[in-house]
Amino acid sequence: MAKKLFASLPENENIKKKKGVLSIAGVITGFGNGMFGSGGGLIAVPALEKLGLDVPSAHASAIAVILPLSIASTAVYAFGGAMDWKNTLYVCLGTIPGGFIGAKLLGKLSSVWINRAFCACMLFAAYRLWIAG
To answer: What is the CA radius of gyration of the chain?
Structure first.
Protein backbone atom coordinates (compact mmCIF):
# COMPACT_ATOMS: atom_id res chain seq x y z
CA MET A 1 0.00 0.00 0.00
CA ALA A 2 2.77 2.46 0.92
CA LYS A 3 4.57 1.68 -2.34
CA LYS A 4 1.40 2.51 -4.27
CA LEU A 5 0.98 5.78 -2.35
CA PHE A 6 4.56 6.88 -3.03
CA ALA A 7 4.27 5.92 -6.70
CA SER A 8 1.27 8.25 -7.10
CA LEU A 9 3.01 11.29 -5.61
CA PRO A 10 4.63 13.84 -7.92
CA GLU A 11 8.41 13.87 -7.63
CA ASN A 12 10.81 16.78 -7.98
CA GLU A 13 13.27 15.79 -10.73
CA ASN A 14 16.19 17.48 -8.88
CA ILE A 15 15.64 15.20 -5.90
CA LYS A 16 14.56 12.01 -7.65
CA LYS A 17 18.03 10.41 -7.51
CA LYS A 18 18.83 11.59 -3.98
CA LYS A 19 16.44 9.42 -1.95
CA GLY A 20 19.26 8.00 0.19
CA VAL A 21 20.53 11.47 1.03
CA LEU A 22 16.97 12.51 1.89
CA SER A 23 16.66 9.55 4.24
CA ILE A 24 19.91 10.49 5.98
CA ALA A 25 18.67 14.09 6.28
CA GLY A 26 15.51 12.63 7.83
CA VAL A 27 17.49 10.71 10.44
CA ILE A 28 19.49 13.84 11.31
CA THR A 29 16.28 15.91 11.46
CA GLY A 30 14.63 13.34 13.73
CA PHE A 31 17.69 13.21 15.97
CA GLY A 32 17.71 17.01 16.23
CA ASN A 33 14.04 17.08 17.14
CA GLY A 34 14.37 14.35 19.74
CA MET A 35 17.51 15.77 21.28
CA PHE A 36 16.89 19.53 21.08
CA GLY A 37 13.15 19.91 20.53
CA SER A 38 13.67 21.32 17.04
CA GLY A 39 14.82 19.94 13.75
CA GLY A 40 12.07 20.35 11.21
CA GLY A 41 13.05 23.84 10.25
CA LEU A 42 16.57 24.06 11.56
CA ILE A 43 17.83 20.97 9.77
CA ALA A 44 15.23 19.95 7.18
CA VAL A 45 14.82 23.32 5.43
CA PRO A 46 18.50 23.84 4.58
CA ALA A 47 18.85 20.14 3.62
CA LEU A 48 15.84 20.30 1.28
CA GLU A 49 17.09 23.54 -0.28
CA LYS A 50 20.56 22.05 -0.78
CA LEU A 51 18.96 19.05 -2.50
CA GLY A 52 17.13 21.26 -4.99
CA LEU A 53 13.79 22.38 -3.58
CA ASP A 54 12.88 26.04 -3.94
CA VAL A 55 12.58 28.00 -0.69
CA PRO A 56 8.77 27.90 -0.27
CA SER A 57 8.66 24.17 -1.10
CA ALA A 58 11.48 23.41 1.35
CA HIS A 59 9.68 25.26 4.15
CA ALA A 60 6.32 23.65 3.34
CA SER A 61 7.89 20.18 3.12
CA ALA A 62 9.69 20.69 6.44
CA ILE A 63 6.34 21.43 8.07
CA ALA A 64 5.04 18.08 6.80
CA VAL A 65 8.19 16.39 8.16
CA ILE A 66 7.60 17.88 11.61
CA LEU A 67 4.33 15.99 12.25
CA PRO A 68 5.61 12.39 12.37
CA LEU A 69 8.87 13.29 14.08
CA SER A 70 7.03 15.35 16.68
CA ILE A 71 4.62 12.49 17.36
CA ALA A 72 7.55 10.11 17.89
CA SER A 73 9.45 12.52 20.14
CA THR A 74 6.31 13.47 22.08
CA ALA A 75 5.57 9.80 22.77
CA VAL A 76 9.05 9.26 24.21
CA TYR A 77 8.84 12.37 26.40
CA ALA A 78 5.23 11.69 27.48
CA PHE A 79 5.87 8.08 28.46
CA GLY A 80 9.02 9.22 30.24
CA GLY A 81 6.98 11.65 32.36
CA ALA A 82 8.59 14.80 31.00
CA MET A 83 5.43 16.48 29.64
CA ASP A 84 3.74 19.47 31.28
CA TRP A 85 0.38 18.83 29.61
CA LYS A 86 -1.48 21.85 30.99
CA ASN A 87 0.98 24.45 29.75
CA THR A 88 1.55 22.50 26.54
CA LEU A 89 -2.17 22.70 25.73
CA TYR A 90 -2.16 26.48 26.23
CA VAL A 91 0.74 26.86 23.82
CA CYS A 92 -0.97 24.52 21.33
CA LEU A 93 -4.01 26.82 21.23
CA GLY A 94 -1.78 29.58 19.83
CA THR A 95 -0.05 27.34 17.31
CA ILE A 96 -3.20 26.82 15.26
CA PRO A 97 -3.78 30.46 14.24
CA GLY A 98 -0.02 31.07 14.15
CA GLY A 99 0.54 28.14 11.81
CA PHE A 100 -2.32 29.23 9.56
CA ILE A 101 -1.01 32.80 9.28
CA GLY A 102 2.55 31.61 8.70
CA ALA A 103 1.48 29.18 5.96
CA LYS A 104 -0.50 31.93 4.22
CA LEU A 105 2.49 34.31 4.39
CA LEU A 106 4.86 31.67 3.01
CA GLY A 107 3.06 31.79 -0.33
CA LYS A 108 3.16 35.59 -0.46
CA LEU A 109 6.76 36.38 0.52
CA SER A 110 9.77 36.22 -1.75
CA SER A 111 12.43 33.58 -1.12
CA VAL A 112 14.83 36.32 0.00
CA TRP A 113 12.49 37.49 2.76
CA ILE A 114 11.62 33.95 3.81
CA ASN A 115 15.33 33.17 4.20
CA ARG A 116 15.96 36.42 6.08
CA ALA A 117 13.12 35.75 8.51
CA PHE A 118 14.28 32.15 9.01
CA CYS A 119 17.85 33.31 9.57
CA ALA A 120 16.73 35.96 12.06
CA CYS A 121 14.84 33.31 14.05
CA MET A 122 17.89 31.02 14.09
CA LEU A 123 20.17 33.88 15.17
CA PHE A 124 17.76 34.85 17.95
CA ALA A 125 17.60 31.23 19.14
CA ALA A 126 21.40 30.97 19.04
CA TYR A 127 21.76 34.21 20.99
CA ARG A 128 19.28 33.03 23.65
CA LEU A 129 21.08 29.69 24.02
CA TRP A 130 24.47 31.37 24.21
CA ILE A 131 23.34 33.84 26.90
CA ALA A 132 21.47 31.17 28.90
CA GLY A 133 24.58 28.98 28.49
So the answer is: 16
121: closest CA among 65, 41, 7?
A: 41
What sign results for the dihedral spanned by CA atoms 116, 71, 23, 65?
negative
The span from the CA of 9 to the CA of 52, in Å, is: 17
Domain ranges of the chain: 18-132
For 126, the 3-state DSSP assignment is helix
Look at residue 116 in the predicted model and tell me its pLDDT.
92
Using the 8-state DSSP alphabet, how is residue 52 labeled?
T
pTM of the complete model: 0.67
- CA 17/CA 89 separation, integer angstroms: 41
Mapped onto helix, strand or coil, the DSSP state of residue 42 is helix
10-residue mean pLDDT profile of the chain (133 residues): values are 55 68 86 77 85 86 86 90 91 91 88 89 88 78
Identify residue 94 by its one-letter amino acid code: G
